[in-house]
Amino acid sequence: MAVAGPVYPAVPAHALIQMQAFSSMSF
């Protein structure tokens, strides 16, 4: 996931955190 930062600078870090939290809730 660390590579997603430099690869997608347009996507804010909090968005990635939210995605991880959502996937965690899913499981």
From TrEMBL:
This is Uncharacterized protein.
